[in-house]
Amino acid sequence: MKKSLVAVSVIVVLGAAWTGASWYTGKLIEQRMGELVNNANGQIRTLLPKAGVKFAYKDYQRGLFSSQVRYILQADSSVAGEKALKEGDEVAFIETIDHGPFPLAQLKRFNLIPSMASVHTELANTPALKKLFEVTKGKSPFTADSRISYSGDTSSAITFIAIDYQQNTTSMKFSGATIDADVSRDMRNVKMSGNSDNIVFTSKNQWDQLEQFSLQGLTLKSDSKMGKFDLSIGDQQLAIKQMGFSIDGKEMATLAGFNLNTQLGETDKDLNGKLTYSLDALKIQGNDFGSGKLAFAFDKLDGQSLKQFTSAYNQQVLQAVQAGENLDPEAYQQQMTEMLLANVPALLKGNPTVSIAPLSWKNAKGESSFNLNIDLMDPAQAKATVEPLLLKSVKKVDATLTIPMAMATELTTQAARLQGYSAEEAQKLAQQQVQGIAAMGQMFKLTTTKDDVISSSFHFADNQVDLNGQKMSLQEFVGLFGMFGGGAPAEEDTGSEPVAQ
What we know:
Strand content: 35-45%
Low-confidence stretches: 1-21, 483-501
Number of helices: 9
Helix content: 25-40%
Largest sheet: 22 strands, antiparallel
Number of domains: 3
Distance between the termini: 131 Å
Mean pLDDT: 82
Structural class: alpha+beta
């Protein structure tokens, strides 16, 4: 009997403790909502200061073991100009919060790790999202189940629903997707992984042909954080198993094995990074055109200047999105050019370096490659001259190019066959074109040909150019090839008067 009383007493005490802890956790959650909203608005102000939107919460209903709240994204009246959302429009997220230390939602999944809360999130069907919910047939396009630790960090499992939508001659089939994300309390550190099996989009073009775009096997991984310049740094990987495009059921192009890897880092003043692209196979109308890769790297890029440039670029893009069909392409291009030219000098403060090593393309007959290294400099450190900004900013250039003629002939043959030539005609035409290009390159001294390989090497430093072993001044090079609008090099002044004709 005594043992039974002890057991009952323990259960009562534990139940009371759990109830008290759950009630207290509910109060902590409510107190931290303001912090969450402030962090989100801080990110908006940093990344999109002129978007004209802000994050807020309302309708919070706190219970003993669970609560509900509505987070909303709405127009920010304190920001002037056109906004991403109209006044009165809302993008709303409905959250059901199970309080810790052992949230009921976690217990259902036999997860006994103590946490502040377990949160279930869905997107609300608001007037601003009417068209989206028509596509999803009234269902939230995604749901998220998150665990919030007492430190404030969040781990989420996000599921995007499958979609099968058709309207007139347009249709979309989407298998759905999943994303797992770990986000720090201040939202500055994010780890994420996601995948989707396939998406197929079909519509008729202006010639009444049925076009279809398909994507299969999408995976994404990211481990990033906000650096000291409020720019995201870290590692990202994107992979796509296959992309395809067809017209009226006929395969036009297929890309297989696309991969993108990005690494971004920083020092006290500068940013550095490397982007690597690769494609395992490109097929056009069933013809195998080969594979390719590109590795692009930069170092010593002034961090503060890049932050300003990124902010200006994001605003230009946002304005273009807001303009929609009213966008003037020529005016937009002019604005982007002016913005770029205005920011280039500041971006060069750290004397950055840029490299491509390599850009290559490979088919059954060989591999062509191009390598480039450029040392840039702050134009303010250059000597006072009338040279264009580009020339003032370049300190050194090294470039090499190799093209096996057999490889180029194979590639050109396939291109000719797509134009309707027979296999024999395409082969003959390709050989003539490649041999003509090789001869022209040698005639203008741009390339050399040895052992059936077209090659070229270029070196520039201290106002001197070395092109395939030919040394000349930059001015002679510009005059020789007419680059940058230059004419023939000026003759040396002998002090004699010109002879009248």
